[in-house]
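Sat 14:20. Reprocessing the chain from the morning session after the first attempt stalled halfway. Input below, unchanged.
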Amino acid sequence: MGTFLKLLVFRASATHDAVGSRLTGNQEEPLAIMKLYFSKTSPYARKVLLVARQLGQMDEIETVPVNPLEATDDFLAANPLSKVPTLVVEDEPALFDSRVIVEFLLDRAGMNDAGRAKTEMLKRQALADGITDAALATVMEKRRPESEQSSYWVERWSAAIDRGLAHLEDGAVNALEHWHFDAMATASALDYLCFRLPEIDWQTKYPETATWYKAACERDDMKATDPRD
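Finished this time. Tokens:
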């Protein structure tokens, strides 16, 4: 078992001890040394929140809800692309793109192993993010006036989603035995499909993936980050 897998077992309990704190009245309040701009409905931001929770880093993060379509000046200063999630760290340039932020959080936790196992996890994360990309593009396209929508692109994105789900069903989902960032990305993508594109009946077509997804949704951290609440 690599360092990445070993450290995940106890990292969540050890992280708080390494974080600075301040006293407020009779209570000790951890210092928030990072600021995460996020949207509750963003599956990319959800993935980052799930990773931070698993690593025990939420006490270090101030979460700032933002609507990228109505961006504030401070958010645009952090991310000129006006996308979530964006992570601002004290005395460092802001980080954006969920995969970059995940890598940073893993580095911060001392859990960013290299090697074939990590590469496979990155591939599964890329698959999940690709499904999310196609789903999000579909959602945004369908918000355009019907006369302006492109059936060509909607069909292409629908086909990409289906191929991605088929790849999960063909074996990729079986590799998601542990709750690592690849599993979190996958759960976020699948739940986004159910949330925003319920007309896609993927759970009937891909039962093994659906079974894995239902189990993932029972986790406390998935419930705590549910965009429907």
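The radius of gyration is 18 Å.
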